[in-house]
Amino acid sequence: MGTKDSSAEPPLPSQKRERSTDTLHLEFFNAAQERKRINLQISIPAQTTEREEKSSSSLFSSSPSEAALVASSRPEEEIMGAPATLLPPPIPGLFFDPSLLIPAEFADAVVKYCLNTYFTSPHVNQIMLFERAPPPSPSSAPSESTPRLNEDDVGSGLPPTLTTLLSTLSEILSVSLPPSVHTLLFPRAPSRARQAIINLYHPGEGITPHVDLLRRFGDGIIGVSFSSGCVMQFVKQERQPEAGKECVDADGNRNAVDSQSSNDQPVYDVYLPERSIIVMTGDARYRWTHGIARRVRDYVFLKGKQDHDGGEWIDRKVRLSITFRWLLPGAEVVGGDNPDLEE
């Protein structure tokens, strides 16, 4: 899907699993001045300075073998519960339509690009990419009649494959999202930069239930599944997590939310097919956790294909997910005195 922006330094992998003592690199593109904090180099595009840092803890399960062991430690019949649904749950601010899919040929191209560019090492399963901050002066910002998406002369700092993906998402979602939500996700003249996080899941891996960091990311999150589907669980929180307190659970998992849900709080299991899109805004972004259980297959209600219990087992394959989020002011500073800014 084209070559990477020549003005952008290569993205730097983060390791979600403790497989080795390999180091972590991170490049953050910002139009403002260079800022440093604790062995982390934040550089302006086209500069080639970098430092190494050990990877931080993360939300993801440790390794495919360990996760599969956990997932298979009990008979699946004891843990499956009711089958997950393909229907969008009644969560305010959550938008999901399983019939709206990324075109198959383009999805294959995105997966091929990401695997060949970012995941050539078996020790890497997460990549974070950062857009350049938009121009501070209104006079230098794109006009209302000039969309910023996928414009090479403006250059977001994201590779062309991802800017094309954003354009594709904007077109697909324009038919289903309320105009105000579509504008939130795809403004003509963005006032903030985006972060794109690319995760590679093997069967048996999952992600701790969490609310995305409140001090780092704004409203409006877009997630796309590639190569495999999975069940994502949504759980309502009795109260909205406070900024800085949604990041570490009892096991030391960053970004996880303390258990606030009583047994009578709503829980929804939603199956996200490959090439599907999910959007979280408002309550869905701030008041509901989302997570993926560590399993090698999912129990899903598929109309016309269910067994006598009402569901069908669907094996997981290697899944690539790409999530786009808006960065809040100061989000380019990672580590130091603000551990809640760590991903």
Explain what this protein looks like in three dimensions.
This protein has 6 helices and 17 strands. The strands form 5 sheets. It has a 7-stranded antiparallel sheet. The chain is of the alpha+beta class and 343 residues long. It has a single domain, classed as Jelly Rolls. Helix content is 15%, strand content 25%. Residues 1-10, 12-78, 143-154, 245-261 and 336-343 have low confidence and may be disordered. The protein has helices at residues 64-71, 76-79, 104-118, 160-173, 179-185, 282-286; strands at 12-14, 23-24, 35-36, 41-42, 53-54, 94-101, 126-130, 194-201, 207-210, 217-226, 230-236, 267-272, 276-280, 288-292, 297-300, 312-315, 319-327. The protein is globular.
Can you identify the CATH class? Mainly Beta
The amount of helix comes to: 10-25%
Distinct helical segment count: 6
| CATH topology heading | Jelly Rolls
The helix-and-strand class reads: alpha+beta
State which percent range the strand residues make up: 25-35%
Biggest beta sheet attributes: 7 strands, antiparallel
CATH architecture: Sandwich
